[in-house]
Every structure is written in C-alpha cells, then in structure tokens.
Specification:
By secondary structure, the protein is an alpha/beta fold. The protein has one domain: 3-Layer(aba) Sandwich (Rossmann fold). It contains six helices and seven strands. The protein has a seven-stranded mixed sheet. A hairpin with a 2-residue loop joins strand 3 and strand 4. Helix 2 packs parallel to helix 3. It is globular, with a radius of gyration of 15 Å. It starts with a strand and ends with a helix. The mean pLDDT is about 95.
C-alpha cells in the first residue's frame, strides 16, 4: 500500500492558506481518482482506493502541522509499513511560488511539519513533493505569510503546481520515484 500524505492545518480558518497546499493536492487526487477523504482515523482524514491499479491511502493529518508526525506514525504502525511506503506533500518557503520539487530524503529545512515527521519516524529518508510558496516580502512576517491566502494574481500558478504535484503523486504509485522526479523536474513552467 502507498500512503500519500498532504500536510496542512484542519478547519475552515486555514482552508486556503499557503501552509495547506498539501491538503489541496490531496483534494485534487481525491477528485481525480474518486477516493473520498472523509473517514476520521489515526487523527487524520483518510480515504482508501486505487490509483493505476495500486492500493493507496490518502491522508490529511488533523493534528495541526507541527504534530503531523504523530498521525503518520500511527498509520505506519497500524499497517506495519515503513517510511519507504510514504510520500509527503507540503509547502516550501525556499522555493519560488509554484515550483514543484521532489526529493527522496533530506532535512526539515525549518519546516515544522517535516521536523515532526522526522522525529516520529526516526529518519529523514522518506519521499517528498515540495511546492514553492515563496518567502514574504522583505520585512514581512513568515507566520502571517504561511497562514495567509494566495493572492488572486497567484492562483493560476498555484493551481498548476497543485495539478503537477497531484499527477506526480499518482505516477509515484506505480513508477520509480527517480523516474517521477526526472519527469517533474524537466517540465517547462
């Protein structure tokens, strides 16, 4: 089973914020593949289905970003899986808006959701899809930026990044992650 996890914060207040771009990708996958993500389980909203014939679990942790690892750890223990079986999708301040980058492992890079995952999984080695949300303007507050919504002028770029990330996650259910990485990193945007 492949576990595809989008990071974000629960509730209407955070619904369209930059920090919730991982949830947006899960929603896109859910819509395209007809996998409702509505079951409350493992301190998350989950949906189980098939992508390209492979069994997948779509996950939106409901523990708030900074505690995402608690929910993901529960899932791996329940299904007796390892960090090799997960793909995590999240926002990245250090990438330009809309840029999609894939990695097989790495540090948290200051991202509290990833710090929590590393802490609870005991490793930095898990597949990731990072989506650029850019840094705030000079003098701007990082917290206000990540918890803020996208400007109307940014929406088209964000929608395209969400589409690309959703396609990459679906492709990763049957293809090697290196192949998916090479495909995404060569796309012209």
């Amino acid at each position: 089973m492949n576990i595809i996890i989008g990071l974000g914060n629960p509730g209407k207040k955070y619904e369209d914020t930059r920090h919730n771009i991982g949830f947006m990708v899960i929603d896109k996958i859910s819509d395209k593949w007809g996998i409702p993500v509505q079951q409350a389980k493992f301190r998350a909203l989950v949906g189980e289905g098939r992508i390209n014939g492979e069994r997948v679990l779509l996950v939106k942790p409901q523990t708030y970003m900074n505690l995402s690892g608690e929910s993901v750890g529960e899932i791996l223990r329940f299904y007796k899986l390892t960090p090799d079986d997960i793909l995590v999708i999240y926002d990245d301040l250090d990438l330009p808006l809309g840029q999609v980058r894939l990695r097989e492992k790495g540090s948290a890079g200051g991202h509290n959701g990833i710090k929590s995952l590393i802490q609870h999984l005991g490793t930095q080695a898990f597949k990731r899809i990072r989506i650029g949300i850019d840094r705030p303007a000079p003098g701007g507050n990082v917290i206000d930026h990540v918890l803020g919504t996208f400007a109307v002028s940014e929406r088209q770029v964000v929608e395209e990044a969400v589409r690309i990330a959703a396609e990459a996650a679906a492709m990763a259910s049957t293809e090697s992650f290196v192949k998916v990485m090479n495909h995404v990193h060569t796309l012209k945007r």
